[in-house]
Amino acid sequence: MPRWLPILLFAAVMTALPLIPGIPPFWIVLLDNIGLAALVAMGLVLLTGVGGLTSFGQAAFCGFGAYTTAYITTVYGISPWLALPASLVVAGIAAVLLGLMTVRLSGHYLPLGTIAWGIALYYLFSKLDFLGRNDGISRVPPLSIGPIDMYDPHTIYFVIWAMVLISAVLTMNLLDSRTGRAIRALRRGHVAAEAFGVQTARAKLLVFIYAAVLAGLSGWLYAHFQRNVNPTPFGPQAGIEYLFIAVVGGAGYVWGGVLGAAIVIILKEVLQGYLPLLFGGQGQLEIIVFGILLVVLLQLAPGGVWPWLANLVPLKFRRAVTGNADGLPARERVGGSTTAPLLKVERARKQFGGVVAVNDVSFEVNAAEIVALIGPNGAGKSTTFNLITGILTTTGGRIEVHGKPVDNTPPQEVVKLGIARTFQHVKLVPDMTVLENVAIGAHLRGRSGAITSMLRFDRGDEAKLLAEAARQIERVGLGAEIDQLAGSLSLGQQRIVEIARALCADPELLLLDEPAAGLRHMEKQRLAALLRQLKDSGMSVLLVEHDMGFVMDLADRIVVLDFGTRIAEGTPDAIKTNPDVIKAYLGALA
Ligand SMILES: Nc1ncnc2c1ncn2[C@@H]1O[C@H](COP(=O)(O)OP(=O)(O)OP(=O)(O)O)[C@@H](O)[C@H]1O
């Protein structure tokens, strides 16, 4: 089924609803409120559900949008339509300022930070004289198109839902793009995304601004719908409710935001309408019942109602890969005519407090060479990988790529030099397909930004990126799994997906951390064949591996670490018979 068909059907239903003869006006008001909340929740989907940044403060951005338009339309008498860009820009600027302070926070400090500024802004709105303090601003003009003034809920309904639909389409386009994949990777931590060039701080700020602008849009609509603005709807309680809406609907799904808004607002109305009849109007019982029902709902559908419903109607939107990977620009080579080794690690050192994880280790990797780094658990192999790829800073020594120092260079810059890696503990995004995960590897080879992607002007670039990802997936032998969610594959297969992702970066040196762990015998043989093939094509491989049969068959050279110190280096035959290595490591394996 084409992707746009359900959207078109939804648009048709929403257009027809208010035209049904005899539909109670109250229902239209309810639908207007659902649309307004859906816009805020959609921003939260991107921010919290997709990007992993929990915010309780979104209502404040509605306030920025609402107060901006209320102020300039009443004081300067300009058209609400001209005030719209101002509302969005003010909400966006507020997001930049608050985002720069907040998105650096992690763990529970981030949501606490959003609560703090949510409360602060609420009090600010209610204390400023020019915003009317607690009384707010009244006599806000209605929206109008030509001779039609949208005084009644029936007419503004079409504007609200047109905005919801346009925002949903733009948001889906954004998520289904190079920038969207970078945002979706944030939730699994920074390390993997940064290793492929994603500027995670910038991606976080982008979603923060995007969510705030959607909230600002909702605020703008709200001001011209209610025609007066006061601080109450923009306080911390509303902020909590918006987050509730996103979570109930399904925080990871654009339509979850819309569905969540419908569920929460209708439920509240029904309870407020009927419970006082049942219990004789005793003190706000509906709020308690509302809370209990939401908790029950989340128990039944922990990921939200949208994915639960989507599972009942399993519609598959298969991604056709149509582009030509040859059109993708190759990574710019930095080696040039230098005779320096591809990778030179010289007396690299890493201390964690009193622990010397890497103790003045030196070795080199040359072009078209497979080098293995072996040693007992805790010998410092993964730490060495992290020093080379910029995830950790060195305590001493020097690391060079083509003679260029890279120690203490950010991972996003290291990958540009042609170094791509896999991880000992697999770092894929489980709810993204194999194709989407692998395409993150080609992040630096694409150019499209957020706006281009939202407007779908990125299709040429995107087709080439996906074609490259598909080519690498075929290359590692996982073509049949291309549309599977990465989280549904076996751990061994996930390691191979990581290799395909690394190959997408067009590397000169592949760093593989235990690539054969979890693979069956035949799979290991296929992996060894692939790595030999890569070597024949001129690529180098540095691998950490505990399977000695695999290493001895494959490596040109082996470097052995023990307690962070290099104890031997040589060909597999020399290493097999080295007494120090047998004592420290091979003996233990025998
Ligand atoms: N972030 C950290 N903080 C403190 N100590 C660390 C940190 N990372 C690693 N270490 C310590 O550094 C030493 C080397 O660890 P590393 O993970 O590099 O070993 P490894 O050779 O990769 O081991 P394995 O084969 O088990 O993966 C260990 O003693 C480990 O406990």
From TrEMBL:
GO terms for molecular function: ATP binding; ATP hydrolysis activity; branched-chain amino acid transmembrane transporter activity. The chain crosses the membrane at residues 26-47, 59-78, 84-102, 109-125, 156-175, 205-223, 243-267, 287-309. Residues 343-588 form the ABC transporter domain. InterPro entries: AAA+_ATPase, ABC_AA/LPS_Transport, ABC_transp_permease, ABC_transporter-like_ATP-bd, BCA_ABC_TP_C, LivM-like, P-loop_NTPase. It is found in: Cell membrane. SUPFAM superfamilies: P-loop containing nucleoside triphosphate hydrolases. It is a multi-pass membrane protein. GO terms for cellular component: plasma membrane. Keywords: ATP-binding, Cell membrane, Membrane, Nucleotide-binding, Transmembrane, Transmembrane helix, Transport. PANTHER family: ABC TRANSPORTER ATP-BINDING PROTEIN, CONSERVED COMPONENT OF ABC TRANSPORTER FOR NATURAL AMINO ACIDS-RELATED. Involved in beta-(1-->2)glucan export. Transmembrane domains (TMD) form a pore in the inner membrane and the ATP-binding domain (NBD) is responsible for energy generation. This is Branched-chain amino acid ABC transporter ATP-binding protein/permease.
